[in-house]
## 1
Amino acid sequence: MVIGVGDVYQALADPTRRLILDELTERDGQSLFELCSRLVMRHGVTSSRQAISQHLAVLEDAGLVSSRRFGRTKLHHLHTEPLREIAERWPAEPKE
């Protein structure tokens, strides 16, 4: 699957998804239960587990998050490569 820049921007457009990325930046490899708990305790996010799961699916589709099974638990991991590609696409100084 080819991931476009638009997919990344769409994934980043939602504040809850940005908080999920913040939580995975702080502690990578979290389960849905852990993410939901941290979002409630640290940010007051009261979304349901199903809603957080849907946000994770959008982040996965954009290539920003991946998941792997560890027994019965699914762990979520951050991937920053799509963000680097955006940063490298438009350099700070224009070329002459």
## 2
Amino acid sequence: MKKSAVVAALGALAQETRLDIFRLLVQRGPEGLAAGEIAERLHLPSATLSFHLAQLKHAGLATARRESRSIIYSADFTTTAALVSYLTENCCRGRPDLCLPSVVRPRHHQPAHGDRASRQRTAGGVN
């Protein structure tokens, strides 16, 4: 991935609304979402959404396709993978495994009542 493309992608993601849109598209996967559904889920006026989707498309982070009367937007996973690869390529003296998350947990993880480590983290203010 060329440095100019990396800068464009990071610049596009450096705005809160675009980051929210991009994360929603990534969560949805290749199936994507109709523009109206994105606007509804994120409580965005259609003009605002259109502007931000255009920025994501220009940066190569989103694609659009027509299905019947709707335009479906998806994250461009090829570009996303290239961006992550570029950012971790020379990570930690050739140890990109140190840059990547070791465990993916649900965002709203609730510790089990018997989970001692979770209770200690919560009690210590770390959680």
